[in-house]
Amino acid sequence: MNDRYQSGAEAATDSPAALAAALRATGYLADEGLATAAFLAIRMNRPLFCEGEPGTGKTALAQALAQVLDAELIRLQCHDGIDATQALYDWDFPRQLLHLRALEATAAAGGPPMDVHAVEASLYDDRFLLARPILRALQHSPSVLLVDEIDRADDEFEAFLLEVLTEHAVSIPELGEVRASTPPIVVLTSNRTREVHDALKRRCLYLWLDHPGVEREIEILHSRIPGVPQRLAKEVAVAAQKLRTMDLLKPPGVAESLDWARALMLIGASHLDVDTAARTLGAMLKYREDADRVRNRLDVLMAS
Questions:
Q1: Which pairing describes strands 89-91 and 169-172: parallel, antiparallel, or unpaired?
Q2: Full-model pTM
Q3: How far apart are CA 158 and CA 200, in angstroms?
Q4: Which band of pLDDT confidence, cut at 50, 70 and 90, is reported for residue 126?
Q5: Which of 10, 128, 164, 271 is 20 to 30 Å from the Cα of 222, by its Cα?
Q6: Buried b vs exposed e over 40-64: b needs ≥16 C-beta within 10 Å?
Q7: Whether 88 contacts 147, CB under 8 Å
Q8: CA distance 13 to 287
Q9: Cross-strand pairs, 75
Q10: Rounded to an integer, what distance in angstroms lies between the CA atom of residue 28 and that of residue 67?
C-alpha cells in the first residue's frame, strides 16, 4: 500500500463522520446511515451490498469512494448470461497466434528448433493475458471494485462471485493462483429486479438507498451545479418528489434531477413553470408513456 493511499484512507476512514465529510468533498452527500455503512465496509473489509431504486446513488457511491481513497475504480457491469470468463480473464488469441507464427518462421529460417513444451509455456504468458474486472481488482492495489446490477446475473455467477469475495484469490490453470495483496473495496449494487441469494448477502454489509428528501435533493443540486438559483433548485426538487409518487414506468432519479436543472439553466429559466417544464421534460422522463402522462398533469405538478 503506498503512503499516499495509506494516509488518505486513514484520514477519511477515521470515523463515519470523517468519511461523510470526505464524500461530501467529492460532491456525494451521504447521510449518517450511509456513511456508517460505508465506513464499516472499509474497516471490516466486507463487501457493501447496496439495493434501491435506479437513480438513488448506488453507483455514484462507489465512484465517490474511489476518489476518497485515491483508488482505481474498476467496474464490472453485470448482464443476462454473464459468466466467470467475462468477469475474470481471457487469452489474447490473435497475439498468441502471431507469436506462434513468429516462432515457426524463426525455426524455418534456420533458428533453434521448436520445443513443444517451451512454445506452449511461452503462449500462456502474462503478456497475452487479458485481465477482466475481477482479476484487475485483485492485481491492483488500491482499488474499488464496483459490481453493478448483480441482480441481472444468474445463480451460477453469484456462486462464483461469492467464492472470489471470500478468498480474494482466483486460480488461472496456466499461471497458478493470483491473490490480492490488499483486498479491493467491493461495492455491489442491485435494482432488485430479482432477489439475490442469502449466501451472497451474508458475506456483505447491507445498505438500502432511498431517493433523497426535498431538502437533501436541494443540497445535492447546489453541490453538483454551482450557481443554480435557489428557487429553481427547490422547484426541481419538489417536482421530482411529485413525479416519483406517480405511476411511471421509470421514476426519475437524482441524475435526472441534475440534468433537468442544468437544462433549465441552459435555456435561461430562473424558475420552473408549465411552459419550461413541458419544453425540457425529456431531461427528466425517458419513456413516451411517462411524458404523455405527466404533460396531461403539468398544472398539478407545478402547483405548490
A1: unpaired
A2: 0.85
A3: 7
A4: confident
A5: 10
A6: bbbeeebbbbbbbbbbbbbbbbbbb
A7: no
A8: 41
A9: 146
A10: 10
